[in-house]
């Protein structure tokens, strides 16, 4: 494991997001091992269009993040929400942002006594910082198909693509968070690696010992559970309506941030609970009969997904039914993959009828070795290899 190093991570999401992302899990482990870590909350890829229904909520979330300024976590990680202009499609704005970031992050670097930091960027708009922080090693983590994300910002995809390509060119290590992302990569292959998602296994595997969250007590069984963002373009509302027509007794339980535009709010068997802290989530999962991922995977952006929650679902041992994702085809022996609405519904029926304890054991065994501790050790070896080569 890396020790006594300095790491600056430009995340693709905010640290305070209720469901920890891969950067959150990894940086926590690096900090616990004795490294100095600065985590820079997402500088985003710009705002949605003025007519987008989530423009105001996104501004509100970012202002809340700004209000936290720079804070230290229990592991000693300094988390900062830097002030930048949300116009990354404009070259002049990008130049201004570069200067703002150098000023703000540079102050923290000096305060923490960092030298020759490892620079970890997980969003293309941070590429202009690569040559500005005297980095000893540059990692570019590709977590999404950035130029296919038309839901979250209004920046021209060609601009995002150029920033992405520049980041690949300048990075010492390129980590892809999904098999489909890596399979379609055409540049920098000699320094590219698959960083599989992982699981905090002990956190999820003991839910049989937990009392289900009180907020779920009034919801009848059977319960089909999901946690994470609930976006109209992400969650397959037609599937849920079809399933509800055939099985009105099924209760769909969604836990997470609810975006505007969902048409499921008035359905009597669909329940929405707000996002809860990560430490509390297993108590909610303990209330599920089946874990589900009812995504619209025909969406270009979504099809590249490598949802961490799928591995967390498996770690609970409960039956898991998901929409098809290339990332999880290799785990079809422990996952039920519904490739159509009818098949998804049938697989839930099958999951609810399951009574073989060995299948639960197999699901947990499939992810037990793929922990965030193991991923952090593996990445550490890659980084140390780059640093050692530079000393030769």
Describe it:
The structure is a single chain. With 392 residues, this protein is of the alpha/beta class. The chain folds into two domains: 6-198 and 371-391, Glycogen Phosphorylase B (Rossmann fold); 201-368, Rossmann fold, CATH 3.40.50. 35% of the residues lie in helices and 14% in strands. It has helices spanning 22-32, 55-67, 91-111, 157-170, 179-183, 201-205, 237-246, 281-285, 308-316, 341-352, 357-368, 372-391; strands at residues 6-10, 36-40, 70-72, 78-80, 118-121, 137-142, 173-176, 192-194, 223-227, 251-255, 270-273, 290-293, 320-322, 336-337. The strands form two sheets. An eight-stranded mixed β-sheet has the order 3-4-2-1-5-6-7-8, with helices on both faces. Strands 11-10-9-12-13-14 form a six-stranded parallel β-sheet, sandwiched between helices. β3 and β4 form a beta hairpin. The chain is globular, with a radius of gyration of 21 Å. The two termini are 21 Å apart. Residues 46-52 and 58-68 have low confidence and may be disordered.
Give the SSE layout.
Layout: E1 6-10, H1 22-32, E2 36-40, H2 55-67, E3 70-72, E4 78-80, H3 91-111, E5 118-121, E6 137-142, H4 157-170, E7 173-176, H5 179-183, E8 192-194, H6 201-205, E9 223-227, H7 237-246, E10 251-255, E11 270-273, H8 281-285, E12 290-293, H9 308-316, E13 320-322, E14 336-337, H10 341-352, H11 357-368, H12 372-391
Parallel strand pairs: 1-2, 1-5, 2-4, 5-6, 6-7, 7-8, 9-10, 9-12, 10-11, 12-13, 13-14
Antiparallel strand pairs: 3-4
Helix pairs in contact: 1-12, 7-10, 9-11
Give a quick rundown of the structure.
The chain is α/β, with parallel strands linked by helices and 392 residues long. Helices cover 35% and strands 14% of the residues.
């Amino acid at each position: 494991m890396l020790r006594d190093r300095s790491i600056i991570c430009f995340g693709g999401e905010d640290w305070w997001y209720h469901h920890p992302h891969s950067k959150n899990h990894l940086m926590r482990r690096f900090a616990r091992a004795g490294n100095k870590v600065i985590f820079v909350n997402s500088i985003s890829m710009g705002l949605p269009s003025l007519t987008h229904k989530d423009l105001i909520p996104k501004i509100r979330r970012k202002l809340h993040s700004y209000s936290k300024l720079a804070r230290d976590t229990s592991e000693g990680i300094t988390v900062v929400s830097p002030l930048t202009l949300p116009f990354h499609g404009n070259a002049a704005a990008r130049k201004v942002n570069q200067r703002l970031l150098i000023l703000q992050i540079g102050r923290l670097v000096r305060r923490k006594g960092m030298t020759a930091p490892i620079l970890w960027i997980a969003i293309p708009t941070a590429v202009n910082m690569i040559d500005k922080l005297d980095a000893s090693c540059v990692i570019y983590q590709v977590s999404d198909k950035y130029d296919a994300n038309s839901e979250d910002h209004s920046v021209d995809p060609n601009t995002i693509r150029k920033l992405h390509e520049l980041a690949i060119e300048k990075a010492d290590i390129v980590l892809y968070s999904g098999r489909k992302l890596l399979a379609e990569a055409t540049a920098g292959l000699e320094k590219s690696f698959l960083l599989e998602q992982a699981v905090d296994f002990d956190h999820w595997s003991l839910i049989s010992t937990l009392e289900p969250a009180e907020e779920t007590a009034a919801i009848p069984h059977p319960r089909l559970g999901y946690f994470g963002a609930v976006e109209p373009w992400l969650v397959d509302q037609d599937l849920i309506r079809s399933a509800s027509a055939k099985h009105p007794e099924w209760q769909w339980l969604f836990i997470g941030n609810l975006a505007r535009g969902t048409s499921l709010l008035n359905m009597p068997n669909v329940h929405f609970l707000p996002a809860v802290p990560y430490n509390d989530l297993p108590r909610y999962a303990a209330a599920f009969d089946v874990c589900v991922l009812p995504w619209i995977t025909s969406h270009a952006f979504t099809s590249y997904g490598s949802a961490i929650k799928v591995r967390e679902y498996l770690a609970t041992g409960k039956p898991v039914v998901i929409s098809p994702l290339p990332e999880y085809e290799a785990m079809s022996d422990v996952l039920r993959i519904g490739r159509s609405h009818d098949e998804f519904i049938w697989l839930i029926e099958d999951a609810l009828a399951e009574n073989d304890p060995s299948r639960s054991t197999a699901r947990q065994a499939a992810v037990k070795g793929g922990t965030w501790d193991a991923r952090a050790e593996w990445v550490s070896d890659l980084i140390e290899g780059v640093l050692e080569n530079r000393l030769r």
